[in-house]
Specification:
By secondary structure, the chain is mainly α. The chain has a domain of about 220 residues. About 75% of the residues lie in helices and about 0% in strands. It has 14 helices and 2 strands. The chain has a two-stranded antiparallel ribbon with strand order 1-2.
């Protein structure tokens, strides 16, 4: 049977798949957003970033590891065929993104580093534009511009000072985010999304542990307590949430959402992570958002809705999928 014949002719099932993908992407962003406000007090209490990331990635990777084991059992030679993809996912979107972003954050305001990293959706639009040599639709261009304007208002970069090395590091983090969406979009039957996430997280955890063990970066673990809105809890409690819930749900639902709705729409929905982070910062750390940030949030939502409208337009020609993979949505 040809790929053309396999394309669904009934809109309802396709719509249900897309709706499920959107819900997964939003919940993924919500889960990821909980990590920052929970990790911040740990770092302030003396934990090193490498220690936090090792526990975070390692715990999440272990929770998702049954998916990797199941894929290896079902497919003979699974690890031999996909070890490079698992290694790349662990080194670039998982460990690389974290290291580049937090290194940039040490040289420039967090808001500026966030703004640059979350330009990833715009980079994806530009990448497809260059690859296909097709000018994006007005909905895509308009939605991109509105979403970026909203992002600028949300992260509040007024009076910030730019740092060249910090800017390059943040751009590297943005490119790592792009790799995350592109690699997730290419998952399918031969490389299940959860297997990719599990393998990548375990590789990321091993990488961070190795960097800490060799002394390349500091590795400090302390038996201490942290405080959230006046409530004092042991340090391991928020770390367990970050690894078992925030990171596990974030990656698991994220990699499953992208093949359903395409990397472009998924990346713009990912901007909602900034909004959810403001919410968690308010609830856990008493960091009250400014009214202008609410306006920025509305603009981000408007931009995502425009991108979504473009994704609803009918496809005029079938897209050839990778063998055993879901056809990527590059509309």
């Amino acid at each position: 049977m040809s790929h053309t014949a396999a394309i669904p002719t009934i809109a309802a099932p396709v719509s249900r798949v897309a709706t499920a993908g959107i819900v997964m992407a939003v919940v993924s962003a919500f889960a990821f957003a909980s990590s920052g406000p929970l990790v911040k007090p740990l770092l302030e209490a003396g934990w090193s970033l490498s220690a936090v990331l090792t526990v975070r990635m390692g715990l999440s990777g272990l929770i998702l590891s049954p998916a990797l084991v199941r894929a290896a059992i079902r497919q003979r030679g699974f690890l031999r065929r996909h070890w490079l993809a698992l290694l790349a996912f662990g080194l670039i979107p998982v460990a690389g993104c974290q290291l580049f972003f937090f290194s940039a954050m040490q040289r420039m305001p967090v808001a500026v580093a966030l703004l640059i990293q979350y330009l990833a959706p715009v980079f994806l639009v530009a990448f497809v534009w260059m690859r296909t040599r097709r000018v994006p639709s007005r909905l895509v261009l308009g939605g991109s511009g509105i979403a970026v304007a909203g992002l600028v208002l949300v992260v509040d970069i007024g009076g910030a000072r730019f740092d060249l090395l910090g800017t390059l590091l943040a751009l590297a983090a943005a490119l790592c985010v792009c790799v995350y969406f592109v690699m997730s979009e290419r998952t399918g039957d031969t490389l299940p999304p959860l297997a990719l996430a599990a393998g990548g997280l375990l590789v990321g955890a091993a990488t961070m542990a190795l960097l800490g063990a060799t002394g390349i970066i500091p590795f400090v673990v302390l038996d201490t307590t942290v405080t959230f809105q006046g409530a004092t809890v042991p340090a391991w409690l928020p770390l367990v949430w970050v690894g078992a819930v925030g990171t596990t749900l974030g990656y698991a639902l994220g990699v499953m959402a992208v093949p359903r709705i395409g990397s472009r729409l998924a990346s713009f929905i990912g901007l909602s992570e900034v909004l959810f982070a403001l919410l968690f910062g308010w609830l856990l750390l008493a960091e009250t958002p400014a009214p202008i940030q609410a306006v920025g949030g509305a603009l981000i939502l408007a931009g995502v809705l425009l991108i979504r409208r473009d994704a609803d337009r009918p496809i005029t020609a079938p897209v050839e999928p990778l063998p055993g993979a879901v056809a990527p949505d590059i509309r």
